[in-house]
Amino acid sequence: MTKKHKKPEFDFEGVFDPEDYMYFYADMLGDRLTNQQVEQLVQLLNLKKSAKILDLACGFGRHANRLAEAGHKVTGVDITPGFLEIARKSAEKSGVKVKYVQADMRKIIFRNEFDVVLSLFTSFGYFDDKENMKVLKNVTKALKPGGILCIDVLHRDGMVKHFVPCFVMEKGDDFMIDRPMFDLESGRIYNNRVVMKEGKKKNTPFSIRTYTVTELKELLHKAGLSVIGFYEDFDKKPLTTESRRLIMLARKGTGE
User: Fold this and answer.
1) Backbone dihedral angles phi then psi of residue 145, each to the nearest 5 degrees
2) Which secondary structure element, helix H or strand E, spans residue 67, and what is its range?
3) Which parts of the sequence belong to the Methyltransferase domain (predicted)?
């Protein structure tokens, strides 16, 4: 199961091709799920009106725009121009203002600006451990003193217990196949994604780091954040070894 791999280089253009991603994921990540998650996030984070929120790796803006509709001041950052274009059009259609910024999360330069930073839908762990730490340190700098990070990732323990070696999404005659392999030594999932659409085949290899509770707590501590809670979902279900996802909350110190 363990295999040596080169330094991970995440293919954002391939994995997050806006046309393919929206084609296969848009229905699954629709209004019903998004509205439910935003309602739960508001309660989980005890968000006050006009909270300043950074949605890091915001994708096509499904959470950012809903949070803006709820009266919050939202900034969305993503590296993919096509996602940001969709997000801006959606915000305009809904009549809300969201500041969308194209940037690499390793290079953001916000300082003491946000009450909350969101990292949702496994948008942390793209890089090697050194670069992932750089992301967390940027998050710490972006938060106001006392601000909170909400991070939503795969739960390594539950993922290993319920490992699926092949996952297929179908839409009409088209399909997307993931064939992941978990590397115990690096803690990474290495995947080869095959998209077959309109008779054309595209292969996109990529990997992502997974974390145990202990590992993620240690990382957050090193980045200058104190963990204040961890759960299975946004509705505060207790985390168990069966949990497939890990939601962790961490606060920046008030003296910083």
Assistant:
1) -55, 130
2) helix 62-69
3) 53-147
| DSSP states of 100-169 | EEE--TTS----S-EEEEEE-SS-S--S-HHHHHHHHHHHHHHEEEEEEEEEEEEBHHHHHHT--S-EEE
Mean pLDDT (the chain) is 95
Distances (CA, A) of 206 to 151, 156, 192, 215: 21, 17, 6, 22
CB 43 within 8 A of CB 54: no
- The amino acid that residue 63 corresponds to is H
Q: How far apart are CA 63 and CA 50, in angstroms?
A: 15
Taking the CB of residue 86, how many other CB atoms lie within 10 A of it? 19
Q: Give the Cα separation of 67 and 35 in Å (integer).
A: 9
C-alpha distance across the termini of the chain, in Å = 43
CB atoms within 10 A of CB 199: 7
